[in-house]
Every structure is written in C-alpha cells, then in structure tokens.
Design brief:
The protein is α+β, with helices and mostly antiparallel strands. The chain folds into two domains: about 55 residues; about 110 residues, Immunoglobulin-like, CATH 2.60.40. Helices cover about 35% and strands about 40% of the residues. It contains two helices and eight strands. The strands form two sheets. Strands 4-1-7-8 form a four-stranded mixed beta sheet. Strand 5 and strand 6 form a beta hairpin. The radius of gyration is 33 Å and the shape is flat.
Length: about 180
C-alpha cells in the first residue's frame, strides 16, 4: 500500500492539508467535464432511441387500428379561381357521420393556396358503401354557398382513397368526390 503525503516546506500542516484538498478538488473537477460530456452523449443517444421507438410505436398503432386491407382515407382540396372561405365540411359513410371539420382563417388560407388536408382516416369493411360529403363556404361578397356530392364505393382488400374537391362550377363552387388510385 502506498502512502501519499504532501508537505510544503516552510508551511504548517494545516496549509499542506488545505493544499491537498484543493488539489484533490481540482483533480475531481477536472474529471467531471469528461463525465458530464459522456452523460450528455448518453442522454442524446437515449433521446434518439426514444424518438425512434415512438416512430415505430406510431406506425405499429396505425397498422393495428387501420390495417391496410381495411384502410379508408379521404383527402380534401380546394381548386377555385376566386377566394372561397370553406367554413365546414362533413363526411358520411352509409348514412353515418364519420368526420366533420370547421375551418379557421389560417386553415382556409392554406386550402386556398393549394393545400391538401387528410380529412379522414378510418376502417371500412369489404363491400359496397355509400359515401356522401357536404360543404358550407362563404364567397368574397359574403354570400353563403352549400354543396354536396355522393359516390358509391366498392371496398376491396386494398386501401381505398378518396379525394373531395371543391371546384369552380359556374357562379358558385361545387363539391366533387372521386377515387384516388395508388
């Protein structure tokens, strides 16, 4: 066993003890940044692992709740030349409301600039289904416009995608529904 001692010539043992304490503190704090740095690296790696796990869990959850063979997705787009403020859009499947959205000015602006919204994501059993959509909008002069459209969808084992489009149709916008091919 090695015995360490520190004696500063011309100094009292108390000063030597104080110097020893300072040196040991300095040595300990010198090693501390390396420890902090490695801890920071471990924390960053842990964050990345948690984000990756969250992505995987989200995908797994979506696949569980909406398996690809039953997946039914509906998208909304606005394609009109004049300013139309979409106030509300509703979606009905087999006479049951499955989705209803009311739009704030920021959302209206995004749709008016060519944005596409994922309006509905759900499951749909195989077979024929009646799909109906309705919209309410205000025109630039404050006039209220309403419209609706319907389509009969034959659901197969593949995902079914529909697009709701609000388009120009003479003096007021019109709603169209079409199947979107993958």
């Amino acid at each position: 066993m090695t015995k360490w001692s520190l004696h500063l010539p011309g100094r009292s043992p108390a000063v030597s003890l104080a110097a020893l304490c300072c040196l040991s503190f300095a040595a300990a704090s010198h090693g501390e940044p390396a420890t902090r740095q490695s801890l920071d690296q471990e924390v960053e790696q842990l964050k990345e692992d948690v984000l990756s796990l969250d992505r995987d869990m989200t995908t797994f959850d979506r696949e569980l709740r909406h398996p690809s063979q039953a997946r039914f997705a509906v998208f909304l787009a606005v394609d009109v030349e004049r300013r139309v403020n979409i106030e509300e859009v509703s979606l009905w499947v087999d006479q049951t409301v499955v989705s209803l959205s009311r739009y704030n000015p920021a959302q209206q602006y995004a749709l008016g600039q060519g944005g596409v919204q994922r309006f509905h994501l759900g499951n749909l059993s195989r077979g024929r289904h009646a799909v109906q959509a309705r919209f309410k909008a205000k025109g630039p002069g404050g006039q209220t416009w309403e419209g609706e459209a319907s389509i009969s969808v034959l659901k197969h084992s593949n995902p079914t995608l529909l697009i709701l489009q609000i388009v120009n149709a003479g003096s007021q916008p019109q709603l169209r529904i079409a199947e979107w091919a993958l």
